[in-house]
Amino acid sequence: MTGTTANGIETRLAGFAGALRENAIRVGLGDELDAARALTLVDLLDRGEVREGLRIAFKVPHEAWTTFDQLFDAYWGGALAAPRPAQQRELPRDHRGLPQWRFDEKRLRFAAAEAPEQAVGEDAPGYSPEAVLRRKPFDELSHHELAAMERLLARLAIRLAARRGRRLVPTRGRGAVDLRRTFREALGTEAELLDLARRTRALEEPRLVLLYDTSGSMDPYTRVLLAFALALRRVMKRVEVFTFNTALTRVTGLLAPAKIAQTLERLAAGVPDWSGGTRIGACLAEFVADYQTRMVTRDTTVVLVSDGLDLGDTQQLAGAMQALRSRAGRIIWLNPLMGDARYQPTAAGMSAALPYVDYFGPAHNLEALERLLRFVK
Q1: N or C: which end of the chain has fewer CB within 10 A?
Q2: 298 lies in a domain?
Q3: What are the pLDDT digits (tens) for 252-287?
Q4: Whether the Cβ atoms of residue 16 and residue 22 lie closer than 8 Å to each other
């Protein structure tokens, strides 16, 4: 690539990398350089080669392949060669010298930013309210932002439900060529290879048990975190939800995913000691005694959402966590207090639980919840 052709492709590549970042796919400057090199090694007129080359160069994790493919199809919808000279007008650039793009979320379509003389306002190119909202702590959300956050949580739940596992299954669409099945099927056509058999990673819906702390210290986060549970119930069948404070309550049957506000009011009224004290050990011991055998298996991920401020017996908590560890495929503990860089898990309850936890992470904003995609079994 030389001259204007290289400049045109580099401009489009920079815009595409920015779009990936805005949709929670981590892309660094080094990845952009790798992608630019990858485009010199593939046939730019072969969309499949370009797709695979960029996906490898940007190091896109398996759980983000669906999002990547949607963005790729939207962004590179036309010819992959550089724009014709008549189309090569200079795009407005931001303070880093990169071209600015706007993303239409509903249609998954990109459009070049308007001319520089356009007045700068709420929709100024380069500004992403969604990116800001992803990093904003749940306890600082306004009423208007809560509604927007619930929509983002619904999208995150879909991504979690649509994760692909390691098992390969036959597919009629894109996928890796299955040579063994291709040759086996060719035997019925006198060894004529009419079509290539392909395989792809199977969609494997995870099995989740969610245990939510609804004590008073968790009040600033309860609405948003339970909204996430509702979003998961809307798109996944194998999800069980419990709340705990001074008592354990199974609330799966009380959740109405399409009615978030009404469901939260029903839970607040129906769950004993809502927004009260906390006895995590006693509640987990009750879960182990009454539900573990039929709800927890080696393919189950148990997610506890709590600040770990326990008023009960820490030895009982450690015993219950040990019992869960013996059966669950993975144990995740999400603690909103970890959003503060000064936080240390020194509370007695938290210290007792940590030896049995596979992943201990924050839960104070959407960006923290998105990390679940990497750790759910």
Answers
A1: N
A2: yes
A3: 988 887 777 888 888 888 888 888 888 999 999 999
A4: no
What is the count of structural domains for the chain?
A: 3
Are 311 and 187 part of one and the same domain? no
Residue 170 has pLDDT above 70, yes or no: no
Residues with Cβ within 8 Å of residue 309, at least 6 apart in sequence: 215, 217, 278, 347, 349, 350
The better pLDDT of the pair 131, 212 is held by 212
pTM score, two decimals? 0.60
β-pair type (164-171, 198-203):
antiparallel
In contact, 245 and 273? CB cutoff 8 Å: yes
Buried b (16+ CB within 10 A) or exposed e, 173-205: eebeebeeeeeeebeeeeeeeeeebbbbbeeee
Helix (H) or strand (E) holding 155: helix 143-161
Tell me the average pLDDT across 161-180: 62
The residues, any chain, with a CB within 8 Å of residue 219's CB and separated by 6 or more, are 275
| 337 and 212 belong to one structural domain | yes
Average pLDDT, the chain: 77
CB count in 10 Å sphere of residue 222: 23
Domain final residue pick, 148, 174, 203: 203
